From TrEMBL:
Homology family: Belongs to the Dus family. Dus1 subfamily.
Protein name: tRNA-dihydrouridine(16/17) synthase [NAD(P)(+)]
Keyword vocabulary terms for this entry: Flavoprotein, FMN, mRNA processing, NAD, NADP, Oxidoreductase, tRNA processing
GO terms under biological process: mRNA processing
A GO MF label: tRNA dihydrouridine synthase activity
Cofactor(s) it depends on: FMN
Top-tier EC class: oxidoreductase
Species of origin: [Candida] railenensis
Bias (Basic and acidic residues): 396-430
Length: 436
């Protein structure tokens, strides 16, 4: 590895699979690629709380390649910085191999790999024919990855979702790897599981895929990460190389903190987390427009539980433009700090500033009760009921039995075929003897 004049890392040779994984420090915790949400400032914050590897937000390859304004809004010279923003994977959505290659060429020397988004399930992806909606066009997926693999200086990776059919999911993953993807990240939910219908990722299916892909294949799992201990649960259940989190990380960067059982790292006070994040934004915003543009969204997510109690702050945040002076944003941070400081002046603070853990749920983990002034997971309300208060649908369970039955049928057919061939050989031997 060498450094060029702009302090970006340039690979002397394109690394593959396990060698690539080893070269970036064998990461175990990964910030997922998210639309406008995993930008530079957020990545810097997440790394401080235990993220080993970060992905950029999903970039639109055609716009990134052809629209200078779009590219400058999304990417700056600090992105992929050798000292503060590595290892880094840059993700693009695409449906045109040349647009994708042209976009990737613009960042190939400022990242460790380029990733193809094959997992976005949102309506905009359906309209634009990219993300998870390319699951209907395997030849195009193969062409997109292969073109990068053969023409890009850095490696290519891919992030996919699963089908209801386990065997189809396996064949899809094999095709993606055959095209040239060096890492594969598999989100254990189907394309239809989004928003109100999100449900649970299927770790059993992920383990099935892990077991049936090449043993040395670098495999990242995505889905169902609420708390730091879920990282280890997922790693053991799936036997994956690393665990990726999107929403869990957005609402609590401490979800990746597994080094110690430190409450101040795993469930940080919102006033301290907000201040730390805000100071990072101030430091990089003159270069990183994406970090400035994402700030309001991150404020709301970090404070989601806090704002359910202190609703008076909602309009104060909502009315601010992302272009408002930083002093105006700092006033919000100071208000949060003042409120939380008052909480910690209470005589019974040692009795109320505690985290309790519930019983084991059907999905294998435990819900926690976290004080509202600390960072914590977000639970959607579905039909008037919080997700953590109801039984959730698990991905790809309907087809599980069908898949197993098909496997049994195939096994019976194979045994019958073997028996038939053996009988034919015996019959041939008998005929030869009778002729002699």
């Amino acid at each position: 590895m060498t450094l060029d004049s702009s302090d970006t890392i340039v690979s002397s040779a394109k690394l593959t699979n396990r060698d690539l994984y080893n070269s970036i420090g064998q990461p175990k915790t990964i910030v997922a690629p998210m639309v406008d949400q995993s930008e530079l400032a957020w990545r810097i914050l997440s790394r401080r709380y235990g993220a080993d590897l970060c992905y950029t937000p999903m970039f639109h390859s055609r716009l990134f390649a052809n629209d200078l304004k779009y590219r400058n809004n999304m990417w700056c010279k600090l992105d992929g910085d050798a000292k503060s923003d590595r290892p880094l994977v840059v993700q693009f959505c695409a449906n045109d191999p040349e647009h994708l290659l042209n976009a990737a060429k613009l960042v190939e020397n400022q990242c460790d790999a380029v990733d193809l988004n094959l997992g976005c399930p949102q309506g905009i992806a359906k309209k634009g024919n990219y993300g998870a909606f390319l699951m209907d066009d395997w030849p195009l997926v193969h062409k997109l990855i292969k073109n990068l693999h053969e023409n890009l200086n850095c490696p290519v990776t891919a992030k996919i979702r699963v089908y209801d059919d386990w065997n189809k999911s396996l064949e899809y993953a094999k095709m993606v790897l055959d095209a040239g993807a060096q890492f594969i990240t598999i989100h254990g939910r189907t394309r239809d599981m989004k928003g109100q219908a999100t449900g649970l990722a299927n770790w059993e299916l992920l383990r099935f895929l892990r077991d049936n892909l090449p043993k040395d294949q670098v495999f990242f799992a995505n889905g169902n990460i609420l708390y730091p201990e879920d990282i280890e649960r997922c790693s053991k259940a799936v036997e994956c190389d690393a665990v990726m989190s999107a929403e869990g990380n957005l609402y609590n960067p401490g979800v990746f903190w597994t080094a110690t059982d430190d409450i101040e790292k795993q469930f940080c006070r919102v006033d301290k987390m907000l201040r730390e994040y805000f100071e990072i934004v101030k430091e990089v915003s003159s270069e990183s427009l994406a970090s400035r543009h994402a700030m309001k969204s991150h404020f709301f997510k970090l404070l989601h539980a806090f704002l359910n109690v202190h609703r008076e702050l909602r309009p104060d945040i909502g009315k601010l433009s992302v272009h408002a002076p930083m002093d105006d944003w700092e006033k919000i941070v100071i208000k949060v700090e003042d409120i939380v400081n008052d909480i910690y002046k209470k005589d019974n603070i040692s009795d109320i500033d505690i985290i309790t853990t519930g019983d084991i749920e059907s999905w294998g983990g435990r819900y926690k009760t976290v004080p509202y002034w600390r960072c914590q997971p977000y639970f959607r309300t579905v039909n008037g009921e919080k997700q953590n208060l109801r039984t959730l649908h698990v991905a790809a369970t309907e087809k599980k039995q069908e898949t197993k039955e098909n496997e049994k049928k195939a096994e019976v057919i194979e045994k019958a075929d073997t028996k038939r061939k053996a009988e034919e050989e015996l019959e041939k031997g008998s005929n030869k003897k009778s002729l002699n």
